[in-house]
Here is the input.
Amino acid sequence: MTDNYEPIDTKPDGLDVYKKGEIDSKFKYVNIILGTAFLVLLFMVATLIIDSFHFNSATYREYSEKTNSIDELMKSNEELLNENKYNQELIIEQQSQILNLLNEIEDK
Here is the structure.
């Protein structure tokens, strides 16, 4: 690639010297490609951040709905448990009444 540029002066140590601006023009396309790649990467990072907000929002909404449904299930289970306890006490009371009646019948 350096064959396209003619040195204007050769230093004693063998290094080529180019006119001002020749190096800039040489790297012009490299700078354009790097700038474009940087913009694409910046756009991709911004997209990932925005998408993560959306994902976090959807995940939180789903978590919140599950938490609410679990709370409702717990309340429902507690109500059913209390109802079962009441029914058991009622059954025990009725059984004792039946036993008392049977004992009274036997005594007669």
Observations:
- The CA atoms of residues 27 and 36 lie 14 Å apart.
- The longest strand covers residues 9-10.
